[in-house]
Structure formats: C-alpha cells, structure tokens
C-alpha cells in the first residue's frame, strides 16, 4: 500500500535552499544531514541532496503541489516579493486546475495547483 510521495531535488547551496524554502515559503526544517536536507510544510515534505556542480539552466527538477486557498497562497507570496515564474502567474488551466509556478534558487520548478 502506497502512503506518500516525497520528492528529492538537487541543491547547490544548502544555505540558499533553506533561506528560500524556510524564510520565503514558510517550510520548517525536519533534519539536516550535511549533504541531505529535509523540510516540511503542512503535509508536504521535500528532501534535497547536495549537487554542487548543478547547472541551474540544465535542471529539470519539478514538483506539483496540490493546495487549498490558492489565491491566498499566491497573494502571500507576492506580498513577500517571492518571484513568480514569468510564465507561471495564477491562472485557470483547461484541465480544471487553478495554478501558478515559481523557481527555487536551483531552478527546481514548483507548481501549485487547486481543483476548481
């Protein structure tokens, strides 16, 4: 029986990753194992592995995060001046989702979506 999925994303600089996810997105740290970082917000957990040689322009890491109250989440990020992906502003998609997207410091794409 499957119970959860936890994405593992690359990070070049743990301090930058923590600053983005904890300070800007409101995640909290679960554990820090040097080259491996675990964070959580609500029911979402994300793990990061150190990949110092990562070229962000070649990173295709992506996570789709389902949410509730997406307009409040989106506005809160705008209020904190978190950059939204230029092609990822909040909009209704033909597949029945309201979505927006942003990039973390390593160009991992985070897409947030809510059923409409």
From TrEMBL:
VOC domain residues: 1-115
Record's keyword annotation contains Nucleus: no
Annotated SUPFAM superfamilies: Glyoxalase/Bleomycin resistance protein/Dihydroxybiphenyl dioxygenase
Keywords recorded for this protein, A-Z: Antibiotic resistance
Pfam families, alphabetized: Glyoxalase
InterPro entries: Bleomycin-R (IPR000335), Glyas_Bleomycin-R_OHBP_Dase (IPR029068), Glyas_Fos-R_dOase_dom (IPR004360), VOC_core (IPR037523)
Family note: Belongs to the bleomycin resistance protein family.
Name of the protein this chain belongs to: Bleomycin resistance protein
